[in-house]
Amino acid sequence: MKSYTFFFFHNRGDSQVFSAIVLLGIILAGSYALLPKVYLTSSSSFKGLLDILTKQEEQLKIHIAYVTSLEINNTTEVVMYNYGEHELKIASVLIDGLEAQHNISVYDDSQQVFICGRAVPPKSLFKITFPKQNISELCLILENGLTKCFTIR
User: Fold this and answer.
1) Which of residues 117 and 8 earns the better pLDDT score?
2) Helix, strand, or coil here: 90?
3) Closest CA to 152 of 100, 110, 117, 87
4) Full residue range of the structural domain in which residue 118 is found
5) What CA–CA distance (Å, rounded) separates 150 from 153?
């Protein structure tokens, strides 16, 4: 006579394996049931984060006024102006992807500056000076973590 054993284990190891399989099944079923809610929450959080980053990017209103190479002291100067609402705090400058030795200076109020025939408030202008080199990309990394890159031709 044949006997069949269902859910009856002869030693302790078999029951632990079975318990682990049942527990794993319960966890997977619960995870599957919660998946749509978790997905919606994370995607809306991501959208909120994306909105914040977009607003911060819009605050970065920086343009290059001109780039000049000075033969006298073998340097390159990039004059930029910030027409955004916030003061820029530059943490570092990358030139062609590498951190560059640089000097940043801000124009003072006594200087009258014209760009394309229009007077520009001197406090919004700043000049970055670095050793002369041919550059194709200049990136400013701000203290708040945002990066603004420019292609120079």
Assistant:
1) 117
2) strand
3) 100
4) 61-151
5) 10
